[in-house]
Amino acid sequence: MQNFNYLLTLAIFAFVGAADEANKIINCYFGSWAVVQESSQFKLESLNANFCTHLSCVNFDVASNGSLDALNNPNDANIVASKRAMTLKRKSSYLKSIIAVVGGPKTNFINIAVDEIKREIFIFSVLTLLIEYGFDGVDLFWPNVGRYDGDAYLLNTLLSNLGNAVKAFNFSLSISLKGELKDMQQWSKITDLWKEVDYVNVMAFNYTDTFYHAPFHKDKENSVQETMKYLLQNKSAPASKLLLGVAFFSNGYIVKKKERSSGKNVVKLYQSAPYRQISYNGLCSLLEETEFWYQKHLEATYIKYGGIFESFESPMTLAVKTDYVYELGLGGIAVWLLEHDDFVGGCGQSYPLMRLIHERMSCELDYDG
Ligand SMILES: *[C@@H]1O[C@H](CO)[C@@H](O)[C@H](O)[C@H]1NC(C)=O
Ligand SMILES: *[C@@H]1O[C@H](CO)[C@@H](O)[C@H](O)[C@H]1NC(C)=O
Ligand SMILES: *[C@@H]1O[C@H](CO)[C@@H](O)[C@H](O)[C@H]1NC(C)=O
Ligand SMILES: *[C@@H]1O[C@H](CO)[C@@H](O)[C@H](O)[C@H]1NC(C)=O
After folding, report:
1. Is the CB of 168 under 6 A from ligand 4?
2. Nearest Cα to 347, choosing from 315, 321, 323, 316?
3. pTM score > 0.85 for this model?
4. pLDDT class for 364, splitting at 50, 70, 90?
5. 328 burial via Cβ count (<10 Å: 0-12, 13-18, 19+)
6. Which residues constitute the signal peptide according to the record (predicted)?
7. Angle of helix 77-89 versus helix 116-133 axis, rounded to 10
């Protein structure tokens, strides 16, 4: 059985990235629900302000007329959470931006894009919110492009109208998109994407054709490498605008009974969708008492525990991915989500995953916090 903390230490100090490239983006998404809940132990204010360059609050929602809910309600959870993020801005020279992330479960950007009045209300309300609270930019959390041929065209219009508006005020505009090949083939139809956005958060995880969740090398069709190769080679995306998305949660699948006690590589599972998802802070104590495996040919980590196969982002896989950011000259990394890290330090030092990312991607090391 391998010692997890030992490997964690190795991953932190085996830094091979280019030390002269300190100005990578580390975009940290956090959920307003985690911040505003009274019972939550997650305190945004206690985050080391140097761990992230951007703090992006999910999910600002949009009313059916195109206006932001938060604009009509000062007690909106996203506003409360984003204001707390603003207090961190004063502690860091890096933390340039607080990004208001628009788009939640009820937002359908197509409905806004199709209607000129709604587009105007939407853009006006985004600008008003950014100005009123002093935020630095807007991130469209945009999981699906839409099913119809005309959808990409409509979204392109919305994006370019919004792009023109925010640029006039020097706000940033970014989007987050799914990294699965079938999704990227859809959203690459948005022709002005690369021109309009400052960066794209590529959610290169939660792949549905593999049990490994976010493997670096492919198991079947999708992997981090396949996603990035597709964007850079097939779609000529500018590398500096791409942030590699990493997820701090696991995907767990039920293992077939007769395979439960068998060797590490025999993994035949039942479902097509994960049985459960656990955040890294819920998983880390399991790692101390469970055998875990590093699947070298995929660069993926998993455990088999209580009849569940659980694949997750570990310090080892994060080290591979942060190196890849430098190798490809990407703009940086996007973390989904900050509160899924071991923020209280229940399994050792606090924020082990954020610490690893920060230390591998920054030469101005700051070890407090
Ligand atoms: C949009 O709808 C919300 C309620 O859903 C309302 O508060 C707001 O005033 C409306 N905005 C405009 C510009 O019509
Ligand atoms: C935007 O930034 C440019 C260059 O830094 C500056 O010249 C311009 O005045 C800024 N515009 C606004 C509206 O702040
Ligand atoms: C990317 O381009 C290569 C070479 O042209 C092609 O073989 C491959 O099928 C393309 N990938 C996708 C996912 O379309
Ligand atoms: C991951 O995919 C599952 C379905 O397979 C979905 O329920 C979940 O919301 C996804 N999570 C993220 C963060 O995309």
Report:
1. no
2. 315
3. yes
4. very low
5. middle
6. 1-18
7. 40
Are 307 and 255 a contacting pair, CB within 8 Å? yes
Average confidence (pLDDT) over 182-203: 92
Q: What is the DSSP string of 242-254?
A: EEEEEESEEEEEE
Rounded-to-integer distance, Cα 188 and Cα 323, Å: 26
User: CB neighbours of 210 closer than 8 A, spacing ≥ 6?
Assistant: 218, 219, 220, 222, 223
Domains of the chain (ranges, CATH numbers): 25-248+313-362 (3.20.20.80)
Give the pLDDT score at 266. Answer: 54
Question: Could you report the per-residue pLDDT of 8-35, keeping only the tens digit for each?
Answer: 555 544 444 333 345 899 999 999 999 9
202 contacts 177 by C-beta, under 8 angstroms: yes
- The alpha carbon dihedral of 216, 220, 226, 227 has a sign of negative
Beta bridge partners of 99: 56, 137
How far is the centre of ligand 2, averaged over its atoms, from the C-alpha of 169 (Å)?
7
- Residues 24-63: tens digit of each pLDDT: 999 999 999 999 998 889 999 889 999 999 999 998 999 9
Ligand 1 near 37 CB (within 6 A): no
% pLDDT > 70, the chain = 88
Could you tell me the distance, in angstroms and rounded to a whole number, from the CA of residue 206 to the centre of ligand 4? Answer: 6
Ligand 2 atom nearest to 168, measured from its CA:
13
